[in-house]
Design goal:
The protein has 13 helices and 17 strands. With about 425 residues, it is an alpha/beta fold. It binds pyridoxal-5'-phosphate. The site of pyridoxal-5'-phosphate has 15 residues, from helix 5. GO terms for molecular function: 4-aminobutyrate:2-oxoglutarate transaminase activity; identical protein binding; pyridoxal phosphate binding.
Length: about 425
Amino acid sequence: MSTTNQDLLTRRANAVPRGVATATPVFADRAENAELWDVEGRRYVDFAGGIAVLNVGHRHPKVMATVKAQLERFTHTAFQVSAYESYIELAEKLNALAPFSGPAKTIFFSTGGEATENAVKIARAATGRNGVIAFCGGFHGRTLLASAMTGKVLPYKAPFGTLPGQVYHLPFPDADVTVEDSLKMLNFLFASDIGPEQVAAIIIEPVQGEGGFRTAPTELLKQLRAICDQHGIKLIADEVQTGFARTGKMFGIEHSGVEPDLVSVAKSLGGGMPLSGVIGRADLMDSVPPGGLGGTYAGAPLACAAALAVLDVIEEEKLIDRANSMGERLKARISTWQNRKDLLPISAPRGLGAMIAFDILDGHGSTEQRAGFASAVCAKACEKGLILLSCGVKGATIRILTPLTASDAIVDEGLDIIEQVLAELA
Ligand SMILES: Cc1ncc(COP(=O)(O)O)c(C=O)c1O
């Protein structure tokens, strides 16, 4: 008998610890662009894109071709042993795209967590300071320093004991927190816990991803930039989820016009290959002595080859424009559900470009989120053939991360399923 999802779930439960959670009970067999087939041959529309990794879709032909060509030449040397041109070329391309003026340099790693941690290492080396300021609801990875910077206790921090110190959190502006509130807390922090001259970096997502697709107000980013300039603090834009056309610009921070000092990137850069990096002002990037940065697999040849193709695809297929048109389509449709009494109550859609989310609310006319309920919506969507993810500090947010290469027909098919789910769960 052929393998079933249920067989694999049982084997998984016995062989793999529960600490790595999986959003769906579906085991992948193959995938193309914005569609995935499970081991039982069932087809799904993919609105998750491997958690914001597949802006160019599953197995983009151009990405496949460059990876295959690289596979024929070599798969690994370690950049620290024998370097290769694709790493350099990719760094050159990202330096040219860097969302700040002046010379840039780029270094590569494998995961988003490595990128955010290394951005902090670089900021610490450049400033000779320790402190890091992050935001409540932010997510920067699961390694120890990244967990410390992440602004959510459960499930990311609670069981892991003492996390690396001198990491502080500010409230992120939202319905009940203004930009002034956040900045006031920063002043309290400077007075009570850590002086600004001890802070190496402020790290912020231009749009919080796991935290609920909440856009950082431009005014906040501007003020943070000014405070960083005043005190010699480095501003890190964590673009791991927002990068590479998702928000309707190459980088999310570009919406604000604010220029960061360091940018952490990952996810969609590699088009499905594990690749991350830090793009930064050249003088900062050179503050770490040789050997202080890197990793055995960091900037692996197959991943660099894939990323070069990803950047070409973003340009050739005008995916920045596509993110904006897809986002408008998503928002227009979701807006029509907002006041329908036959559907679950939801908030207005929000987000930039094609990084769109909405909240499940407590009741029609309420603005309170229905805590924890988004996972029920996603589970029902999966039963109906749509892979959909939740997010948000309260677990009440549905997030849409459809590949930017998806057709309008696929987008509409996924939206039809969400509408059916909102009707059935109403
Ligand atoms: C903004 C942001 N930073 C960092 C990370 C961590 O990336 P990774 O899971 O590849 O370590 C994520 C992952 O979701 C993210 O969204």
